[in-house]
């Protein structure tokens, strides 16, 4: 084979010898004259060159590569190839796999090349200027041990990044299969190349599933030194893994109580600490009895999921009827974390201001690393909507009391290690727990820079310190002191809902004196719902300034911008619901013109779902992904299994699981016609029935069905072997001999042969039969047909309830080209102003009726022969040709 080394030597060879092994190799196969012209051995060099393989003389984590520009400035510099980048660990070079890169030098003067070569060798030496090491160390510091972060999304992403920054090897574990929040894992961060382990929470034997996950973690080259929960969904599994692997942990005895809000409250109460009055129930009867016995006055009762996050489905009810309505709404629903609510929690309403008490703990020593005061209020009909929060220092006795109360709860729930995020109401009778999570404060971690600036540290850093750096943990004060500056996290509240045309408020926000950072969860073209919880929040802004009056003024400005006409959003359409939720429209194989059909569906306000009819189809990649429907869900039908009825039911189940009903199924391309028929019939949308479905796709059945209806059809034979074809030709004896051979199912002029002898027919049969056609399907047999003379036209219809509208007539310019008998050279539109075109349209409609094409598009090719119109073929889908 050729000289390897990535071929970086090729330009040197070309310049020095006037040729290269690469060109010479191709000449040796295909160009005898050029090969003969190559000398038997290299002659005098035309210039001098060097390939310099860099040798790393030190190992460590790269901070930068300052030698790049000096190298590029060398007189003989030709090209630079680097195999490393800042942030990488560069090992000592001991072989070609630890080589950091190479440089190619070229110059007429060999003294110049030699001088530059010596320069490069000097630059490689310690302190020579090639590399700038952030850390010089013999081994990759990320091999100090494996740190597992379970569900590293929201603030868990920043926790994972901190782990990597400390030099540990990160492994990400996903706690739930097919979780809708798993996609929130940040993949383009500095830990994007970290391995991911998927825990299987779907199997009945969770002990066995745990062992499988543990086995994958223990198979890593380095030992697991810590297991951290990244988000609320990862808390339970993080506990189990930490205990099983023997790392710092909070034990399993109260693990469920740290996640389940009912058990949480009852455990706190049992420890003698103030807890909320509550009932857990999966049926209405016990709730009715509880309310009757309690008889709250005034009647203010909370109904919420037992396990969730934020204010997801939290209801404030003012009557028994409202409690029952909330129970029916929450129970059994899939919550914002992708989990099904099993029962509800009915609790007393706690009055007063709400605070967040964030702690980090090590060996039962608790450090309060932040106190946040929520701005949470009724908004858009929802009782509890986060509008923002601000950091507080523990300079008031009541805040000291809240911190001590929080620590009693941590002790009650056995939270001895790691982070905790607690929400506490300061009621008229003192602090009372809302809920606590044994993980970091969430909210995507947008609050972290505020905490760092105001407190000088954050819960994220403190969490890693609590596991690995006892001295730094000890240096953190027991509670927050005086703030270094003032800050606010402003959660945007959408006061109107609709489709966004733009977000003109971005630049004015960035110009605010205390502006720190902007996080948007929406973009132009999106539907923005009214904000009623953290999942409908359009974004947030972080403010920071030495002067708290500046922060307060900017906060008020942002609140004013949120109001209708305030300048934050520009709505293309203001509407109460996403117009794309008028119903689901399924487009099967939305490529070619099907892509434009899908785009039209979206433009009309329907929700698009794309179904792919064939697994591993080479045309599936033609589905347009960067169009306005690029975020539409895709369902892959499995056409490879023997039981296609079961496969159909699986596809139907996925479609029926959509939040909105399927209102139409449209074929996007020829490959989707059969499945579109089956889905439309099964789902009960407009359809053309199944009786003639195959006849609308199979060209042989198509022709015979047309003939049986009394309409002119082409003479033809379908065959999978040569014998019947020979008999057919002998009996027919066409004169002049012009016979068409083509696949039974395909599109366009794919493998359509015009044969002028029996021998050519046999050759075409052998070429077509068994071949993979242009749609990625294997040709089973061929179609042998009479050749139709005359001009070819396209008659495109759209039908509804059997009423056919001819929407276009195209005249093909199709002719023999480059040895092929039928090549599209173009087409032009025609109007139906001639009697013969009227006749063709009426002929086409008889074919539509014969094939039961009563609804939707049809694309028909018709030859205008000397004896009148005759069908070439018809597809019950739009005209293709990429639209």
CATH architecture of one domain: 2-Layer Sandwich
Structural class: alpha+beta
Helix content: 25-40%
What is the residue-mean pLDDT, rounded to a whole number?
Answer: 90
Low-confidence stretches: none
Describe the structure.
The two termini are 46 Å apart. The chain is α+β, with helices and mostly antiparallel strands and 883 residues long. The longest helix is centred in the middle third of the chain and has 16 residues, at 397-412. Among the domains are: 5-136, D-amino Acid Aminotransferase, Chain A, domain 1; 141-249, 3-Layer(aba) Sandwich (Rossmann fold); 277-349, ATP-grasp fold, A domain (Dna Ligase, domain 1, 2-Layer Sandwich), CATH 3.30.1490; 487-574, ATP-grasp fold, B domain (D-amino Acid Aminotransferase, Chain A, domain 1); 579-687, NAD(P)-binding Rossmann-like Domain (Rossmann fold, 3-Layer(aba) Sandwich); 789-883, 2-Layer Sandwich (D-amino Acid Aminotransferase, Chain A, domain 1), CATH 3.30.470. It has an eight-stranded antiparallel β-sheet, with helices on both faces. It has a five-stranded antiparallel β-sheet with strand order 36-35-34-37-38. A four-stranded parallel β-sheet has the order 9-8-7-10, with helices on both faces. The mean pLDDT is 90. It is built from 24 helices and 38 strands. This is ATP-grasp domain-containing protein. Residues 265-468 form the ATP-grasp domain. Keywords: ATP-binding, Ligase, Nucleotide-binding.
């Amino acid at each position: 084979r050729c000289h390897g080394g990535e071929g970086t030597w090729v330009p040197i060879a070309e310049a020095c010898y006037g040729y290269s092994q690469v060109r010479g190799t191709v000449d040796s196969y295909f160009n005898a004259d050029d090969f003969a012209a190559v000398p038997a051995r290299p002659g005098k060099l035309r210039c001098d060159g060097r390939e310099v393989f860099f040798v790393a003389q030190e190992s460590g984590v790269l901070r930068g590569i300052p030698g790049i520009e000096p190298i590029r400035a060398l007189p003989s510099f030709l090209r630079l190839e680097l195999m490393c980048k800042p942030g990488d660990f560069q090992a000592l070079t001991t072989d070609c796999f630890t080589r950091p890169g190479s440089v190619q030098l070229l110059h007429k003067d060999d003294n110049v090349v030699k001088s530059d070569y010596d320069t490069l060798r000097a630059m490689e030496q310690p302190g020579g200027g090639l590399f700038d090491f952030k850390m010089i160390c013999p081994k990759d510091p990320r091999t100090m041990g494996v740190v597992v972060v379970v569900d590293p999304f929201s603030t868990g992403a920043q926790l994972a990044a901190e782990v990597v920054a400390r030099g540990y090897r990160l492994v990400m574990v996903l706690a739930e299969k097919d979780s809708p929040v798993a996609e929130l894992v940040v993949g383009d961060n500095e830990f994007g190349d970290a391995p991911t382990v998927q825990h299987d929470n779907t199997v009945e034997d969770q002990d066995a599933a745990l062992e499988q996950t543990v086995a994958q973690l223990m198979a890593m080259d380095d030992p697991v030194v810590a297991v951290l929960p990244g988000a609320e969904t990862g808390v339970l599994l993080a506990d189990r893994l930490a205990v099983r692997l023997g790392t710092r942990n909070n034990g399993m005895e109260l693990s469920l109580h740290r996640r389940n809000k009912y058990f949480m409250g009852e455990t706190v109460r049992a420890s003698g600490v103030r807890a909320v009055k509550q009932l857990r129930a999966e049926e209405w009867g016990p709730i009715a009895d509880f309310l009757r016995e309690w008889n709250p006055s005034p009647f203010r009762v909370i109904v919420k999921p037992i396990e969730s996050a934020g204010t997801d489905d939290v209801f404030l009810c003012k009557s028994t009827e409202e409690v029952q309505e909330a129970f029916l709404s929450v129970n059994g629903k899939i919550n914002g974390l992708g989990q099904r609510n099993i029962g509800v929690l009915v609790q007393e309403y706690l009055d007063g201001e709400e605070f967040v008490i964030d702690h980090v703990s090590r060996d039962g020593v608790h450090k309060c690393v932040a106190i946040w005061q929520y701005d949470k209020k009724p908004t858009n009909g929802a009782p509890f909507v986060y509008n923002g929060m601000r950091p507080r220092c523990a300079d008031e006795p009541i805040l000291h009391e809240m911190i001590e109360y929080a620590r009693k709860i941590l002790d009650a729930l056995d939270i001895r290690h790691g982070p905790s995020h607690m929400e506490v109401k300061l009621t008229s009778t003192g602090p009372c727990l809302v809920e606590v999570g044994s993980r970091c404060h969430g909210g995507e971690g947008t609050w972290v820079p505020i905490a760092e600036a105001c407190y000088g540290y954050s819960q994220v850093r403190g969490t890693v310190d609590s596991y690995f750096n006892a001295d730094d943990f000890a240096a953190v004060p027991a509670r927050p002191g005086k703030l270094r500056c003032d800050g606010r996290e402003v959660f945007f509240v959408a006061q109107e809902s609709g489709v966004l045309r733009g977000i003109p408020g971005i630049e004015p926000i960035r110009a605010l004196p205390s502006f720190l950072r902007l996080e948007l969860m929406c973009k132009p073209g999106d539907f923005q719902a009214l904000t009623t919880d953290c999942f409908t929040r359009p974004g947030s802004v972080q403010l920071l300034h030495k002067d708290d009056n500046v922060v307060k003024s900017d906060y008020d400005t942002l609140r004013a911008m949120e109001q209708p006409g305030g300048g934050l959003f520009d709505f293309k359409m203001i509407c109460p619901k996403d117009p794309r939720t008028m119903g689901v429209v399924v487009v099967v194989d939305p490529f070619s013109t099907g892509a434009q059909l899908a785009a039209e569906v979206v433009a009309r306000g329907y929700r698009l779902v794309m179904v792919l009819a064939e697994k591993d189809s080479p045309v599936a990649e033609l589905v347009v992904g960067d169009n306005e429907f690029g975020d539409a869900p895709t369902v892959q039908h499995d056409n490879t299994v023997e039981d296609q009825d079961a496969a159909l039911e699986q596809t139907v189940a996925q479609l029926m699981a959509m939040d909105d009903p399927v209102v139409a199924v449209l074929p996007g391309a020829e490959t989707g016609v059969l499945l579109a028929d089956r889905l439309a019939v099964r789902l009960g949308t407009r359809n053309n029935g199944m009786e003639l479905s195959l006849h609308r796709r199979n060209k042989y059945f198509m022709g015979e069905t047309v003939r049986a209806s009394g309409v002119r059809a082409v003479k033809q034979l379908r065959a999978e072997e040569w014998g019947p074809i020979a008999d057919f030709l002998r009996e027919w004896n066409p004169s002049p001999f012009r016979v068409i051979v083509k696949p039974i199912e395909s599109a366009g002029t794919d493998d359509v042969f015009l044969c002028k002898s029996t021998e050519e027919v046999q050759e075409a049969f052998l070429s077509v039969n068994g071949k993979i056609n242009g749609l990625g399907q294997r040709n089973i047999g061929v179609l042998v047909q009479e050749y139709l003379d005359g001009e070819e036209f396209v008659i495109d219809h759209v039908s509804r309830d059997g009423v056919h509208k001819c929407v276009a007539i195209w005249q093909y310019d199709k002719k023999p080209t480059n040895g092929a008998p039928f090549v599209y050279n173009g087409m032009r539109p025609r109007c139906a102003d001639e009697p013969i075109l009227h006749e063709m349209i009426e002929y086409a409609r008889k074919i539509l009726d014969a094939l039961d094409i009563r609804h939707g598009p049809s694309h028909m090719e018709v030859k205008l022969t000397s004896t009148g119109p005759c069908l070439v073929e018809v597809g019950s889908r739009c005209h293709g040709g990429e639209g």
